[in-house]
Amino acid sequence: MHVCSVLSLCLVEYMLTKVYILTPIYRSMTLAEKQQLQSSIQKLSARNLDRVVELICRNRPVAERSCDKIFVDLETEDNATLWRLHYYVEAVEKAKTLSCGRVD
User: Fold this and answer.
1) Is 74 helix (H, G, I), strand (E, B) or coil?
2) Is the full-model pTM beyond 0.90?
């Protein structure tokens, strides 16, 4: 991944944190949006999946954070987590597009 892509992802994550602080209420995701999110998550690299786990575990009790495996049911995750995941996956996809379109 190019430096500009990494910086873009860092900036998006920073902005997501600020957006979450300023607007803690999110609309519910539709079934179609959840299915698209699930599909997009399944296509992520292992490194990006680690970040997905961090985002999901953020609101879970400490006992659930320390396990080796995590079970994710998008139907039971809160709206804030779902939208954080959505924006993260979107940022990863955009960064991939930017890095693929770049000529060295």
Assistant:
1) coil
2) no
